[in-house]
Amino acid sequence: MNVEYMSTTPSKVNRLYREYIKRRGLPLSKEQFSSFMAFYPSLLVVACDGIVDKEEWMYCKKLASGLGTTFANDSVNTTTSAKKLTYIYQNEFKYLLKNLDEWRDKFLGALREHISTNDDAKDFVHETVFIFADASNGISAIEDQTISYVFNELDMEDQT
């Protein structure tokens, strides 16, 4: 689940990180944020029909828990508990689901830049988009359209 962070040179990822962390007042490292950022396309798919159903939200909660556990156990962040990180990630998923349009261009632009040089991150985004789309009774037509939109925005091929 850990998506490697790009270089420290000024980039869309760094600008998004600084803006988002400052606006939201979050104690996340760049590495924690870049892993979080990789799930933004999945949130677009989850919300594309206007309803985040129980199964989809359950996936979001499991994801938040996985991120929280991963980063609480790494050497970068020994002071923040898994429970606290899980809470932060769940809250941020809720926030983004309510504010997708506000952040869409910035997240997709930063992620496009990030995956252009990171095949593991690209594969991860591809895989999670389909996992979330299939969370409740298969992939609907609107989810399929949203996936095509996301892959186009990220300069990814639809490898279904």
Explain how this protein is built.
The radius of gyration is 15 Å and the shape is globular. The model is unreliable at 4-8 (pLDDT under 50). It has helices spanning 12-24, 30-37, 40-47, 54-72, 82-98, 100-115, 119-133, 141-153. The longest helix has 19 residues, at 54-72. Helix 3 packs across helix 6 and helix 4 packs across helix 5. It has 160 residues and is mainly α. It has one domain (12-153).
Layout of helices and strands:
Elements lengths: L11 H13 L5 H8 L2 H8 L6 H19 L9 H17 L1 H16 L3 H15 L7 H13 L7
Helix pairs in contact: 1-6, 3-6, 3-7, 3-8, 4-5, 7-8
Which descriptors would you attach to this protein?
160 residues, mainly alpha, 8 helices, 68% helix, 0% strand
Beta-strand content bin:
under 5%
Which whole number gives the mean pLDDT? 87
Secondary-structure-based class equals mainly alpha
- In total, the number of strands is 0
Poorly predicted segments: 4-8
Helix content: 55-70%
Q: Largest beta sheet, briefly?
A: none
Instruction: Based on Cα principal axes, name the global outline.
Output: globular
- SSE order: HHHHHHHH
Provide the gyration radius in Å.
Answer: 15 Å
Terminal residue distance = 21 Å
Quaternary structure type: single chain
Q: How many H/I helices?
A: 8
Counting structural domains, the number is 1
